[in-house]
Every structure is written in C-alpha cells, then in structure tokens.
From TrEMBL:
Any one cellular-component term (Gene Ontology): ATP-binding cassette (ABC) transporter complex
Residue stretches making up the ABC transporter domain: 2-231
GO molecular function terms noted in the UniProt entry: ATP binding; ATP hydrolysis activity; ATPase-coupled transmembrane transporter activity
InterPro entries: AAA+_ATPase (IPR003593), ABC_transporter-like_ATP-bd (IPR003439), ABC_transpr_CbiO/EcfA_su (IPR015856), ECF_ABC_transporter_ATP-bd (IPR050095), P-loop_NTPase (IPR027417)
Family affiliation: Belongs to the ABC transporter superfamily.
The protein, known as: Biotin transport system ATP-binding protein
C-alpha cells in the first residue's frame, strides 16, 4: 500500500523575491488497487507524482509511505519494494547489452556472477528476448529496449511497479505488446499515460491538473472528466 499524506512539491525560485513553483499541492492518496493509471496534460505533474512513489523525488511537505516505510528516511527499503520504469529505457539501462544490464540488477539479490548471468539469460528467454541477449542496447528496437528495461526492473522481484509513460515512445504494435505485458504482471502497477485505451485497462484513474488531483474514479467517469477538461 502506498500512502501520500498532504504532499506538496515546491521548486525554490532562483532570486530571493521569487516564491518558487508549486508542482504538487497538498496531495493525499491511498493507492491499493492492482492497476492505477495517472493521466493529465503535459506539465500537469504526473511524473512528479510518480517519482515520489519510490523516493526518486522527495516531498517538500507531507509524507509518502510504502508499506509503512517513509520514502525519505527508509529509501533503501522503499526501492526494494517499488521498481521504476522510465519513459525512455535509455535513461535506465546502464550496461551495454541486455544480459549485462540484468546481471547488474541481480547483484542486489543473487551471489556469484555465473549464477546471475544464467538467471539473466533465463529471464530474457521467458520474455522471448533471448535472441537479443548480447546485442548492443543501442541496436535494439524501441519495443525490445523497453521490454529489456522492464525485465531488468522485474529481475529483483519488486512488489510494486511504477511506470512513467512506458509506452509513449513506442509504435502501435509495440505499444499493444507492452500493454499486454503490463496487464499480465502479478505486481501492483501504477502508470502514467496519454493513451486513454491503456488508462481504461486500470481499475482506478487519477486525473492530475496543475499539480492537483481533479478526478479520482473508475476509468469511465475519470476519463470523461479529463476529456472535458482538455476540450
Ligand atoms: N526541477 C524542476 N524545476 C522546475 N520546474 C520543474 C522541475 N521538475 C518539474 N518541473 C515542472 O513541473 C511541471 C510538472 O512536470 P511533470 O514532469 O511532473 O509533468 P508531466 O505531467 O509528467 O508532463 P508530461 O506529460 O509532459 O511528461 C512542469 O511544468 C515542469 O516544467
């Protein structure tokens, strides 16, 4: 369970008389559903909200807790529970090939390089990515790259996945494939998206506007609210 209690995020101004910019205004949420989508216009605060959930960003005021662990004071535990998938997998893949990247992830949980490499190859095979295991990550297609990034995050078995627009850079076919992969994950998944079809696969849709939650409902009414807002 993720809990946000009166969370604000403020970026300080550059000059002394500049009050700064409020990115999120006093948000209180309990996130327990298996699939939660966050939608909103560009710059509305979706990424800021999602980054709070695994401690990538810290609140200026209020608290974020994951299974009772505060993301500020217990960041390590939180990152063990919440895996984060970025829009651009190249922001996340650190090694030059898929097998090496997954081996790196596994250093947190598996002892011995040979064992880690074997497990990495097995995880890639399970996602039908065995044939690209030793290919440069720069030579993968966008879809393959995002699947490798997701496989790398899943390798350490997080209980919750937070994904920031994971399908935005993909073509329609890869988008559909990745959405199916997300739908099949046993983990709780909190994702942001501009794709209303993807948002409709969630049980709950949260609409963010100007750093505030303006709708929080089942997909039908929440997406209707968002569409009216954008009209
Ligand atoms: N470190 C920062 N300093 C100043 N402004 C910031 C900072 N980080 C984010 N912002 C601003 O906060 C607002 C919300 O950004 P955020 O990335 O959360 O939006 P978003 O809803 O994810 O947008 P998009 O759909 O375009 O990805 C934007 O106006 C952005 O420019």
């Amino acid at each position: 369970m993720i809990e946000l209690d009166r969370v604000s995020v403020v970026v300080p101004g550059i000059r002394r008389d500049d009050p700064g910019k409020v990115l999120l205004h006093g948000i209180t949420l309990e996130l327990s559903e298996r699939r939660i989508a966050v939608v909103g216009a560009n710059g509305s605060g979706k990424s800021t909200l999602l980054r709070l959930l695994n401690g990538l960003r810290q609140p200026t005021a209020g608290t974020v807790r994951v299974d009772g662990h505060d993301t500020v004071t217990a960041g390590k535990q939180v990152r063990g529970i919440v895996g984060f998938v970025f829009t651009d997998p190249l922001s996340q893949l650190l090694m030059s090939t898929p097998v090496e990247d997954i081996e790196l992830s596994l250093r947190a949980t598996v002892r011995g390089r040979a064992k880690r490499l074997e497990r990495a190859r097995q995880l890639l095979d399970e996602r039908d990515l065995g044939h690209v295991a030793h290919q440069s990550i720069y030579d993968l297609s966008g879809g393959e790259r995002q699947l490798v990034a997701l496989t790398s995050v899943l390798a350490v078995e997080p209980r919750i996945i937070v994904a920031d627009e994971p399908t935005t850079l993909l073509d329609l076919r890869n988008r559909a494939q990745l959405e199916r992969v997300f739908e099949g994950l046993p983990q709780q998944v909190v994702f942001s998206t501009h794709d209303m079809g993807f948002a409709r696969t969630a049980e709950r849709v949260i609409v963010v506007d100007g750093g505030r939650i303006v709708a929080d409902d089942e997909p039908g009414p929440a997406i209707d609210h968002y569409v009216r807002l954008m009209a």
